[in-house]
Write a structure and sequence with these properties.
The chain has 91 residues and is of the alpha+beta class. It contains two helices and six strands, in the order ββαββαββ.
């Protein structure tokens, strides 16, 4: 994976802030189902360990799509908070 394609190459699974959302993938929970990739392909991709990482193009997916991708994760490995630190998903 070319680091230029990642939102934060030092923390490929986040947390990263996009608009009013803070997104983080719990790598211990992630099982590589890739549902997030199917729902939000501009936000997520799987790395060489089959763990979701956050792309630099995350800004191109609307907030509702990013939240839907988190909700689609079968193990709730994607954590989304608002800009005040309140958890949006999972609750």
């Amino acid at each position: 994976m070319d680091n230029q394609q990642l939102k934060d190459p030092q923390n490929p699974s986040g947390p990263v802030t996009v608009r009013n959302l803070k997104i983080h993938v719990d790598r211990d929970l992630c099982i590589g189902a890739a549902t997030c990739v199917a729902i939000a392909p501009k936000t997520f991709v799987l790395d060489s360990e089959a763990k979701a990482i956050i792309l630099a193009t995350v800004d191109q997916d609307p907030d509702n799509v990013i939240i839907d991708a988190a909700k689609g994760c079968p193990v709730a490995a994607i954590i989304i908070e608002d800009d005040k630190g309140q958890r949006i998903f999972p609750q």
